[in-house]
Design brief:
Blueprint lengths: L2 E2 L11 E8 L5 E5 L3 E6 L13 E7 L2 E7 H4 L14 E7 L2 E7 L1 E9 L16 E7 L2 E6 L1 H6 L6 H5 L14 E5 L3 H14 L3 E4 L2 H11 L10 E6 L8 H10 L7 E6 L4 H10 L3 E4 L3 H19 L1
Parallel strand pairs: 3-11, 6-8, 12-13, 12-14, 14-15, 15-16
Antiparallel strand pairs: 1-4, 2-3, 2-9, 4-7, 5-6, 7-8, 10-11
Length: 311
Amino acid sequence: MAYSHQPLAAEKQSDQIEILQFYLNTRLPFGINVLKVKEIIPVPNLTQLPNANPVICGVANLRGTTLPVIDLAKAIGQPPTADSTSAQTSVIITEFNRGLHGFLVNRVDRIVYRDWKEILPPPNTLGTSTYTSGVTRENDALVQILDLERIIATFDSVTDGDYARISTEGLDDQNRCQRILVVDDSAMARAQTVRTLDSLRVPYVMARDGKDAMDVLLKLNGDEADPAEAISLVLSDIEMPEMDGYSLTQQIRKTPSLANLYILLHTSLNGAINAERAEKCGANAVLTKFVPEELATQVIAGLKQTTDKDA
């Protein structure tokens, strides 16, 4: 299946996701967000690296760019891909979290379209639920949408040194009185974000998706709520089951008691398309994951803007 990603009209619909569906070693389909896919290629020549993580098949040279190729089946705990020389075996080249990675799969199938509300949290019964960010159905089959960020983090994670570079410059006691709502369906991403906010010593609460976030906001920022408990800044992922970050932003802007909140979308997705969509939805800022220092700087800027507006 030859494929090179080009912007599509569907990408402009903030409530819809395109899913690239493929197969590993089972008859059950898996999927990833098309916005993460750069292209699909036959298995290239791979250079083996000594002492590399076992899930890395090797390194490929793609038009002068070097990138790791990961056996996706092995990475999620399945047996390794049986035959990488098969005509159907492909490498999905992805671009997210500011990097390029290749994922070896048995067979690429098709692209399917879903509303975000049709993407549900993974059931606990899934054996690979650790690496599954959501599920949907296609022709009565359960499609597992994989959490590529978590897979990459097993061998390319944020280090203590990255957090050590966080600066609190410009953050005062008044800023630290404001509460932040962290919205992310990934436990790993929430932990990374929380560690960054703890370094800034700012208060926060958490939600697992946009729907959960709206419930929290309506409770804490409603007309009968305690002003001391109110949220001042929403720090949200974009890709989430049931309600994504774009839809959450739109819902916040439509709700009078929430409309003036500062919204920072923090996403693994790269590119100007996502920044444009974020702006159209009403977000104040968008930032690509995950650099703790940059996140801290953007949070401080948002808190200061909120403080200045309330002054």
